[in-house]
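User: Can you help me understand a structure? I only have the sequence.
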Amino acid sequence: MPPFLLFLTVLGLAALGYVLGRKRALASAQGDARNLHSRPTYYGFTVALYVALPAALLMALWSVAQPLAIRANIAQAVSPALVEETGALKLVMTDVRNVADGLGRTIEAGLLTQAETRALDANETDLRALFGQTGVALGADVKPEILSLAQSYRSLQTRAALWKTILTLALAVSGLTFAYLRTNASFRARNAVEQVVRGVLMSAALLAILTTIGIFLALIFNTAEFFQLYNWKDYLFGTTWQPHSGGGRDQPLGLLPLLWGTLYISAIALAVAVPIGLFAAIYLAEYASPRVRSTVKPLLEVLAGIPSIVYGLFALLTVGPLLLSVFGPDKLGWMQGASSVMTAGLVMGIMLIPFVSSLSDDIITAVPQALRDGSLGLGATRSETIRQVVLPAALPGIVGAIILAASRAIGETMLVVFGAGAAGKLDLNPLEAMTTVTAKIVSQLTGDADFTQPEVLVAYALGTTLFVVTLSLNVLAGYITSKYREQYT
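Assistant: Let's start by predicting it. Here is the structure, written out as tokens:
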């Protein structure tokens, strides 16, 4: 059964359980809801939750475990000769999955039956033409062993999908039966539902932590593999970035040029965004009338909804040529192309204005009115009150907002790909093209990448570096804002 159809079936059983549970509860109370411990809907929801939650959990776990188990099973059957011929086990498994996907699509399209796919012969069947009818493109001729492994892969997928359907439906029906039989007038259905809701909320709270841990582990393992091939000192303290295909351990993969470009562009962006955003927040919070505030603030926050790639195009097609017309070879000769640190920094600063403005406005507005009234009562003007009372009181929160904006700037990708250029170098001239960590992560993983080479694996080291930097900034911002909230709540 297809996963979506299985999901709808489970939902249908849950809806049936809701109706049956509610009816049984009312029947046990002789039709009088006042004799029930909880409202009738709680009894229905209890049965529905017993049906849906265990089945959904099994489906989620099965979806994660099934590909891993099948891949491990097939990998054990790959011959050493095929691995040596292909170059790496990962490449063999990629070919196997592609062919297995093609076999699955031929079945879905009605071109072949399940039995016919198991009887295919790589030497007699034009798989390229057959799969081409279903939109699956093969990069090379399929070896007989690859086809055999793909057939086994597809067979295991079919068998696993069948068992998944059987076990999921059996679990859903078992949950329906168990919850239905225990439903009676004295059953504390409301308590059961609230416990489940509490568990769901707790799981949602843990999800962000588990996701962070998962991302970190995925990065750290590949980073460790990179440092087995490349000296960590050359990476952390190298001043040259010139990766080239097949360069191996000897190519220069220094982090410092990329880190310098990242920090340089972020500094220019913050120099633009912080003053403008902070002044806008002060005006909206302290000077603007309610009508002006309700109009200007949404308009200002429209900037936050513009995709970063649009900002990148704006930098490349508008801001870059504008700077080039002033500082280019025909004028001052300080700028050689439209892409530069200044181009990316200015546009990124514009992009960060609503981020700084919105957070700072909320923080300034949260300062207790009693502080303002006390200052004004002592004879201070409004500007003196803002400068000497409101801003110092809001300073921890404003600093936290600036740090969050800095982490946003450091992690920006598409804008710097278009606006900053691709040259990794150490230079103080803001009108020169440079690159950032995020831009190089994209470039190193784009194209026909061989994940056994240092010039590709370095992307994971760059990702780990960026992860540590942004996480540190977010933790610092969270600490500062938490101290602020402790003082003014």
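Now, to help you interpret it: Residues 189-229 form the longest helix (41 residues). The CA atoms of residues 78 and 149 lie 8 Å apart. Let me know which part you'd like to focus on.
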